[in-house]
């Protein structure tokens, strides 16, 4: 086994273990409900008989470990259980159906924002490194430092106020549904995607600039400079290939951030994504839905971080060949 | 050109504190004054109804009234006190828990250190906001739950830093000497190690505070954080959000109040980090 394959297998095992612990934490949240799930759903006034009947109906009278394994097994097969918001019997909604459309919407938004943000951030980062310590660099640097600290809803409302209300360029709400066509969807998701772009742009840009600048003092760059190579060529041909590893890992990290950053943005724009579903479920304490959403967010997050680590490993030449 | 020459040739680098740092410090000081003396500064009470609902700016009061006829300016001022106070309390809890456990992990037997780190790693594998939402769904929406939940989630980050900075100190000669002297584990943790990891922890405090502050505002905005009638910037944005459709900048005011503080903290931290980096 090459050292790289070994590192990747180890990392896969560690991610699987993390997911196992994470899923048991999410499952345990339900067990910690004060008074139990039945009490929380039926109210304080429920008789002990009603609580017992409720627990029996849902199978909550069985040991927690059994229920955890069942929940995990069903979730792995795409069955996320039923929501309790719709009352009892046939009115209960299947969570997987409830989530699938919204999951598509959230990934649509995240992908849209990523397509806008990544090229722009790379261009800004590389140019800031090229003209470092110039006025351009300083302005870009200070404004991105400020942008990192802005809350998502502030960026969102400023964009709504300026672009949707004052200039009338876009709609203030992103009410899409299953019948919305692709281009209509794209148009309605533009403002939320712009908001998310501004949120992650600064991060990627600063990381790109920093990883390029950290390499500019190395001997091989000095050599290229002494040969008389133009600064732009030094950065694009000599420095950038070695700077990819940290840049890729921050990009993937920010993609993972997009998924949870989307929660606030979806609520602002009334965009029917999975984040908004989760916030609604938290307000109504619809625990099965909260757990299902949390599990999806956690799997995406762990998966993307795993991807970042694997890509960093693969770009490391020391691990690429047998020692 | 050497570093010094470049610095001298450049007017911005010659100045000891950058403009952004000075501005940041002034804004932070102003916020603290407003938060501390809110009842003296605010023209009206936190939940006091002073007139008609939704009066525009300049009518009856400087910034108008909200959807219940309360003075927006007074609520913004009280909001400084509530939002900053709750965020500071949460950050303090985070450092108390995360710092103590991080120190414990540094001196504890290996199995305990491994178990603690594994649990904290798993907690960090769930996105911050998502974990907070799950726990708030379980423990209900009240300020105590909010402070405890966010404090515990945030302590995972403090734990990591405390543990990492304490490790090199654990193997130092003076800690070994204390151990041979027969000092207790808590003496070694708090009297030998803690004083040496205070500087990085203090620097981290500002960053963690601004993170916690943003999270509390986001959760309050989502309606699951600080609850009405407490004046708080995040929920004020949510209460007024529909007004923006009618061209009123009302929800922008509390949102801008949040943004200005976090941007200022980041400017000051950036200056401090650069200063520390320049010394090395």
TrEMBL record, chain A:
Membrane topology: Multi-pass membrane protein
Keyword Membrane: yes
Cellular component terms (Gene Ontology): plasma membrane
UniProtKB keywords: Cell membrane, Membrane, Transmembrane, Transmembrane helix, Transport
Entry's transmembrane regions: 107-131, 143-169, 189-205, 243-269, 289-308
One GO-annotated biological process of the protein: transmembrane transport
Domain (ABC transmembrane type-1): residue spans on this chain: 103-308
SUPFAM superfamilies: MetI-like
CDD domains: TM_PBP2
Primary residence: membrane
Similarity-based family: Belongs to the binding-protein-dependent transport system permease family.
Name of this chain's protein: ABC transporter permease
Automatic annotation (TrEMBL), chain B:
Gene Ontology biological-process annotations: transmembrane transport
Topology of this chain in the membrane: Multi-pass membrane protein
A Pfam family recorded for this sequence: BPD_transp_1
Subcellular location(s) per record: Cell membrane
Domain ABC transmembrane type-1: 80-273
Superkingdom of origin: Bacteria
Protein name (Swiss-Prot/TrEMBL): ABC transporter permease
Organism: Pseudaminobacter soli (ex Zhang et al. 2022)
């Amino acid at each position: 086994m090459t050292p790289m394959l070994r590192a990747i297998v180890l990392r896969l095992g560690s991610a699987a273990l993390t997911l196992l612990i994470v899923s048991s934490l999410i499952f345990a949240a339900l067990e910690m409900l004060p008074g139990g799930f039945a009490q929380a759903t039926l109210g304080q006034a429920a008789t002990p008989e009603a609580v017992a009947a409720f627990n029996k109906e849902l199978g909550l009278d069985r040991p927690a470990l059994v229920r955890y394994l069942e929940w995990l097994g069903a979730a792995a097969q795409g069955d996320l259980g039923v929501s309790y918001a719709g009352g009892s019997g046939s009115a209960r909604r299947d969570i997987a159906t409830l989530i699938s459309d919204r999951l598509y919407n959230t990934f649509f938004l995240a992908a849209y924002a990523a397509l806008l943000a990544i090229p722009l951030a790379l261009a800004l980062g590389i140019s800031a490194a090229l003209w470092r310590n110039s006025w351009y660099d300083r302005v870009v640097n200070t404004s991105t430092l400020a942008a990192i600290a802005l809350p998502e809803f502030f960026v969102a409302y400023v964009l709504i106020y300026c672009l949707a209300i004052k200039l009338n360029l876009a709609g203030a709400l992103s009410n899409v549904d299953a019948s919305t066509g692709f281009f209509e969807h794209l148009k309605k998701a533009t403002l939320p995607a712009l908001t998310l772009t501004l949120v992650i742009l600064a991060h990627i840009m600063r990381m790109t600039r920093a990883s390029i600048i950290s390499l500019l003092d190395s001997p091989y760059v000095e050599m290229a400079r002494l040969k008389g190579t133009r600064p732009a060529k030094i950065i694009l041909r000599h420095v950038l290939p070695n700077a990819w590893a940290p840049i890729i890992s921050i990009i993937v990290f920010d993609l993972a951030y997009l998924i949870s950053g989307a929660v606030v943005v979806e609520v602002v724009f009334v965009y029917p994504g999975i984040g908004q579903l989760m916030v609604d479920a938290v307000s109504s304490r619809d625990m099965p839905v909260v757990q299902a959403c949390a599990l999806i967010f956690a799997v995406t997050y762990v998966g993307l971080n795993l991807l970042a680590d694997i890509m960093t490993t693969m770009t490391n030449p020391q691990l690429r060949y047998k020692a | 050109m050497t570093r010094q020459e470049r610095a001298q040739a450049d007017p911005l680098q010659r100045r000891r504190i950058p403009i952004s740092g000075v501005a940041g410090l002034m804004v932070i000081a102003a916020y603290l004054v407003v938060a501390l003396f809110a009842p003296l500064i605010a023209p009206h009470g936190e939940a006091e109804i002073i007139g008609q609902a939704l009066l525009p700016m300049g009518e009856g009061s400087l910034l108008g009234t909200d959807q219940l006829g309360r003075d927006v300016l007074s609520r913004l001022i009280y909001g400084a006190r509530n939002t900053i106070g709750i965020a500071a309390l949460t950050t303090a809890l985070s450092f108390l828990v995360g710092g103590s456990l991080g120190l414990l992990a540094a001196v504890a037997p290996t199995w305990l250190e491994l178990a603690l780190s594994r649990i904290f790693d798993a907690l960090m594998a769930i996105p911050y906001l998502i974990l907070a939402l799950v726990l708030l769904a379980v423990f209900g929406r009240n300020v105590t739950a909010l402070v405890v939940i966010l404090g515990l989630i945030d302590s995972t980050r403090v734990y990591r830093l405390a543990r990492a900075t304490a490790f090199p100190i654990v193997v130092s000669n003076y800690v070994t000497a204390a151990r041979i002297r027969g000092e207790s584990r808590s003496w070694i943790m708090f009297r030998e190690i803690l004083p040496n990891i205070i500087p990085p922890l203090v620097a981290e405090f500002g960053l963690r505070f601004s993170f916690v502050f943003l999270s509390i505002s986001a959760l309050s905005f989502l309606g699951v954080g600080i609850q009405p009638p407490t004046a708080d910037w995040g929920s004020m944005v949510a209460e007024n959000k529909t007004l923006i459709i009618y061209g009123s900048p009302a929800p922008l005011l509390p949102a801008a109040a949040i943004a200005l503080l976090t941007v200022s903290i980041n400017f000051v931290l950036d200056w401090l980090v650069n200063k520390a980096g320049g010394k090395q």
